[in-house]
Amino acid sequence: MTNALRLSDLPHECRDTTPEWTSVYDAFVAKLRDGAVAATAPKNGETFPDFCLPDAFGHYRSLAELVADGPIVLSFNRGGWCSACRGELSAWGERREVLAAAGGRLVTITGEVGGRAAQLLDLVGPEATILCDIDHGLALAVGLAFRCDAHLQARYLACGLDLADIYGGNGWILPVPATFVIDRDQSVRFAFADPDFRIRADPDEVFAIVSAIG
Predict the structure, then answer these.
(1) Which of the four, 30, 136, 182, 193, has the lowest number of CB atoms within 10 Å?
(2) How far is 182 from 161, CA to CA, in rounded Å?
(3) 36: left (phi > 0), else alpha (psi -120 to 50), else beta?
(4) Where are the chain's structural domains?
(5) Which sign, positive or negative, has the C-alpha torsion 134, 138, 144, 150?
(6) What was the pLDDT predicted at 21?
(7) pLDDT (tens digit, 9 = 90+) per residue, 80-108?
(8) pTM for the predicted model, two decimal places
(9) How does pLDDT run across 164-184, given as a tens digit for each residue?
(10) Helix (H/G/I), strand (E/B), else coil: 199
(11) What is the pLDDT of residues 111-145, one digit of tens each?
């Protein structure tokens, strides 16, 4: 079974240990699992669909271009507002030299607007590529997006979190955080997608896959 980097493994400031929120998230994740959210996401051995998205500086980048020089680690995340995503991206930033030595590069995708995507470079380092998935179009296309229910919407708004402002739309869509290793031929060599945003791929396992590609 694939290993996972759990929220409990992250630095203390990256954890949300409030019992009230834990119960809210547990209930919502159970709904996502019942609905088989992310079940149709690209799998190991499949070809990842080509795409073309703007990077944090407005330049459009295609998947074919991104993998031309070697394998990439493609990471879907919810954005800098999410403590689990910040923790994961910080972990990648701390390991960026290890990833480079293995022959890979990090490409992370977020639906955030208003310049927020560029701020993620502070976490992952300037070598990484940040792509902007406007309206979560790519996440929806590959089966990695879902709509927040009314209860979660109300809870987020009550604590001052307005996803409409963060993502620039009123759809209340969130992506499932996911990690893929994609080879030069756009084949998926590693795939990890869990409806529970508190569980992430283990970087060490990813490094091993990237190194094996060579």
Answers:
(1) 30
(2) 33
(3) left
(4) 23-34+45-213
(5) positive
(6) 80
(7) 989 889 999 999 999 999 999 999 999 99
(8) 0.90
(9) 999 999 899 999 999 999 999
(10) strand
(11) 999 889 999 999 999 999 999 999 999 999 999 99
* Strand partners for 73: 106, 181
Angle between helices 19-34 and 150-158 (to 10 degrees): 150
- Dist CA 23 CA 17 (whole Å): 10
> Phi and psi dihedrals of 60, rounded to 5?
-75, 135
User: What proportion of the chain, given as a percentage, has pLDDT over 90?
Assistant: 77
Strand order in the sheet with 188-193: 129-132, 105-110, 72-76, 178-182, 188-193
| Amino acid code (one letter) for 208 | A
CA–CA distance, 181 with 6 (Å, rounded to integer): 19
Cα–Cα dist 31/167, whole Å:
23
Cα gap 74→13, rounded to integer Å: 25
Three-state DSSP state, 54: strand
Q: The domain 23-34+45-213 is classified under which CATH number: 3.40.50.300, 3.40.50.2030, 3.40.47.40, 3.40.30.10? A: 3.40.30.10
- Average pLDDT, stretch 59-78? 96
